[in-house]
């Protein structure tokens, strides 16, 4: 995620960091080359004039608009879904912490609060690593003791295993007299909210936007852009490369951003900052327990935070 | 579902597997033929000039854009709905498993955990087969014993019958002292979540997008494409077949993808990978119980997973 | 609802049943007449040339696109809402059945299961008839006995009355020792889900899309279509009637489908098949109780099912 | 709300009641005047030709389409939100009534059912008056006795005060042995559903669409329409006033409807019929209690119901 | 937020307060300058003609429409999300107040109602200050006593800390015999609703719209507007500055409003009026308790309320 203090409208035109321009530069240079060739040859390919005119392009514009708008909306919807899941993690982790503290305030023996707190945070860390395909063990080693870690090694669904351990602690405590049965229900609901967020994150990862859409959009955009200079050259002459590259920039850039946003758990600049979100949940739970909390993550020199 | 490692932008232009091109090739060849005829005859039909010009097509573009965008969005919404249902199945199956393990940990006699686990997985398998219209018995035979299978044979709503059996086990266990009544509520909620996902999947199957939309879109797209070369030929001459086929490709391909996506439980390349999702749920529940779990499904050589 | 096996792309162009063409044929013939007149007179009205050209129409296209897209989306949203309500009816009826069977399995005297089952099904039938404005008594007579029917006659909110009776039975059974209080909550939630679906269906009927939208769209579409041939005749000559009727077809047909879909409980070809959905709920509840179930409804010769 | 029996397509073109034409007539006449002047002067202002041509307008069309579509969708979303709130009121009022009758059937002394019923209906009436800014006292006087009315006079949040009184009665009854504690939860949920609907209605009133949008749209529409005749006059001559007024009608009318729909609790023709909805809730609750119910509201001669 | 009584359509054209015109005036003047230069030079840059014509702009219009519509919708969605959160705060605060009063009516010793009330209101104030980045202590000092304030000073998640304190009071009271366990559940649900609203507000702040979108839109809009006069000058001559500035106004203004709306907790004119909403919640809770309530906030002379 790019977190950048607002810049004025003029500087924003020339921003490099946070822009997707670097990622699409090769294709744009290619378009510059193609349109210059079209300009030089007067729109001829191997000596034969390709008699396109600007009237042909709005016909393609209908499809292009639908594909681009759909692709972008579907991608952003996935980003929003991911945002909601991580918001739910924060909300449920806090509620569960608050309930565990309040409900067992009079029964200190019922629940090992310190262990519960560390396992709860471990759920979030494990989920982050599962979604990013990274190794959770180094970070979990700071939260769980060695025997527990050993048991978890090799698990395919690590956040689920940790959440099950959290539930087990809470159910045991809640079913132990003189605790009231209602405490079970109250806690169970939040554990389920955590489980729902975990499952929803996996769902985002395991059901991408159908592949056919991407192929169709990609082909349409590129073919359109390759034909464009041949359609423009008779009408706007030397301005052809300028307009062609500008049009191509808008399409390629949108495709590039949409691709990043559609996999919101990645590490591209426009993905969610899972590390920061994980840290925020940890910090909040720590503060609720009144234990020292780690510092919040800060953006790096490139205004990135991941 | 197509699961393909990212390819670079150039190769993506020529991807065959995962594209809908094969499915619409005949129609595209027909369009190539029609537009070549229009080019040869200079836009004449039986000797009479069809005096269309490009100005007529944007008038049709309004309708076409609305129909295509609507059709595609409505289809994708059904795909999303289906994704959410299967996500809910995963979430609820895990939560129920975790609850059943925790809540009856101190009462091993109350619930036959092994039977419960197999029935729970059987619900998901039965749903998959119902949605795909395939025979569930071979796969269920690995989960349930013969007498139970015999009772289920011929059932119209097999997942419901299995879920009722799951509920019966849980209610009996939860109402049996010294279990607390709250356990009933906690379990009941997750059983209902499973039932809701089952019913929602049936709803997707039983209420398709109203038939009239498909007919209207289909006719508009085809008539538009057939007229197009006659409108273009005077303006762009030899480029007519190129542009016509390109425009037709974008429309036909979107219609084809939307058709696949609208029936998300089918087996077309852009449908949901129900087999993989079912297996994922089975694997997760098995891991929660600590029993050996089957391997995850892998994409085949054509990058498909179903 | 039209349920038609897939036909190939060519036959789909000439489908009659399931298309809205019959409903808009008179208006299309009128458009054919108007455009032929415009062609014959060269765009003159009473001898005076109406100097429209094609440039004027895209200006209207903006409004037209917004009105058509909005109207269609708002209509389809109502259709979707209705789908969800009937899905919820199915889900809640099943869950309630399953709960009633499980929770009172050990207390056969607490609940008259046969009566409960028939009343539950009667709720759904009563709702269907209320939404369609038909007489529920013939169908209810097969489910309820004469004294109960007599009490219900003349009720304005029949499904509510039946649902209240269902609730009364369940609350009595759940509050009767030794039943646990939690059973009350578990059942109450599903009764409320049924009530919510009933209320939501009434809401769809009682709050139509604001009338002004329909008038505005209708006027814009018709005025546009009447002016169109005068704008086209100079540019495309003899092709004017073809294009005019084609454009008019797309607008009139979309308006016609949207009108059907906006009242999803009607009996037009693109409405929901309430009879089939009602029967499906009945069949599922019957199968859960293990009693003989009626046959599923089948589409008629015209591929319709209502 | 306009409730009008369907009229045929021809009559619908000339409908006056239910159309927003009356509200925008002055502006349309002004546009007729402006475009006639432009026609007479050949597009000159103070002798100087304003050299607009039709090519300039599609550039503005992009913004206009986005503003109009957004404004309309945001407005309709508020209308939909309001519909859902009133649907929820109906659903929750019925469920609460049904629960209160069933749960206290065996404890007639626990709850004064008649008082409860009148207070419940009073909540809905009070909400209606709060939303419309009218005086609730006359209608409440028919439901509540004088001392209670006196206490309520001057309250800023009258529906909340009444709902609190409803809750108080129910909590007292539910906490009074031998009532089971679960009854409290069951009732509390529906009281909260009513409170949520009340709060959501206030939210609609207190957070309008940001003011800037309306100003921006308004200016764009009017400036566009004022410039339009100068752009059209060279191309379409005497048809300029016709097309200008037609285009202006579509924009002004959409803006006018969207304005009405955005404040769904108002009394304009396209707002919600709060009186009818309130009456419907009252009727349903009365029927549930088996007491005489008032007649349903009917549309007046102008097909309006408010 | 701008709360302005309706003005007639003519005055609305010239509204200054509530319009974003002041914020974009510099850029508009620049566009006026650029387009005047283009007019004077006949579209030449450094003596060389930039041969753009109007046909090139619709090609860019596709991207522009998608970017603007997306940006605006995504921004408004965040505004709506924020509205819903604050609506939920109001609803949950009222419900909790009402429950606390009713449930402990017979046990005055269980809960310190006055302290509870002040802490509940403090949660809302603390949230407002956290979202706006302002110092909460001055306002909290009127609600909480000094020792409690001292404990809260330096907290990173102040609303969470206060909500935890609220929960603690309620759980203690609810677990204290003879209170019924169900009271715990009833209260817990509303505390969680408050916590969910707090977390959702933080989510809005911590996950902005991906940065890349803003950069892409900004560049496209400005480059388009700078090129526009060169494309228009041959076609519309002296009208070029008028149309250029008009087009630029619509784009810049939409970008400016969308930017304000996307950060709904800010203090720009189109943000949410958090002070007014906070006060409304305070007033409602005070009225429920029957204690004197502060006056509602009123718009200032510029029709603003924040």
TrEMBL record, chains A, B, C, D, E:
Main subcellular location: membrane
GO cellular component, one term: plasma membrane
Lipid bilayer topology: Multi-pass membrane protein
Family: Belongs to the anion channel-forming bestrophin (TC 1.A.46) family.
Name of this protein: Bestrophin
PANTHER family xref list: UPF0187 PROTEIN YNEE, VOLTAGE-DEPENDENT ANION CHANNEL-FORMING PROTEIN YNEE
GO molecular function: chloride channel activity
Keywords of the record: Cell membrane, Ion transport, Membrane, Transmembrane, Transmembrane helix, Transport
Residues that span the membrane, as ranges: 12-34, 54-70, 221-252
Location within or outside the cell: Cell membrane
Family annotation (InterPro entries): YneE/VCCN1/2-like
């Amino acid at each position: 995620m790019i977190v950048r203090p607002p810049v004025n409208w003029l500087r924003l035109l020339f921003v490099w960091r946070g822009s997707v321009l670097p990622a699409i530069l090769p294709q744009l240079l290619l378009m510059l080359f193609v349109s210059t060739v079209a300009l030089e040859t007067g729109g001829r390919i191997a000596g034969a004039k390709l008699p396109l005119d600007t009237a042909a392009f709005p016909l393609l514009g209908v499809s292009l608009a639908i594909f681009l708008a759909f692709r972008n909306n579907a991608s952003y919807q996935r980003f929003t879904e991911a945002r909601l899941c991580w918001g739910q993690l924060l909300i449920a982790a806090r509620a569960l912490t608050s309930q565990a503290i309040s409900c067992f305030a009079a029964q200190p023996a019922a629940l090992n609060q310190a262990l519960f707190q560390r396992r709860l945070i471990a759920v979030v860390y494990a989920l982050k690593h599962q979604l990013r395909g990274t190794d959770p063990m180094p970070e979990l080693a700071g939260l769980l003791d060695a025997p527990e870690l050993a048991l978890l090694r090799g698990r395919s669904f690590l956040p689920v295993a940790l959440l099950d351990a959290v539930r087990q602690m809470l159910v045991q405590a809640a079913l132990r007299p003189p605790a009231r049965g209602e405490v079970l229900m109250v806690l169970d609901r939040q554990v389920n909210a955590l489980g729902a967020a975990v499952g929803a994150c996996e769902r985002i990862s395991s059901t991408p936007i159908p592949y056919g859409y991407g192929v169709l959009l990609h082909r349409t955009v590129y073919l359109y852009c390759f034909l464009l200079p041949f359609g423009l050259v008779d009408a706007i002459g030397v301005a052809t490369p300028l307009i062609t590259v500008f049009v191509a920039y808008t399409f390629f850039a949108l495709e590039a951003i949409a691709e990043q946003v559609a996999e919101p758990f990645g590490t591209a600049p426009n993905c969610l900052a899972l590390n920061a979100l994980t840290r925020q949940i940890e910090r909040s739970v720590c503060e609720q327990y009144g234990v020292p909390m780690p510092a919040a993550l800060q953006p790096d020199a490139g205004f990135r935070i991941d």
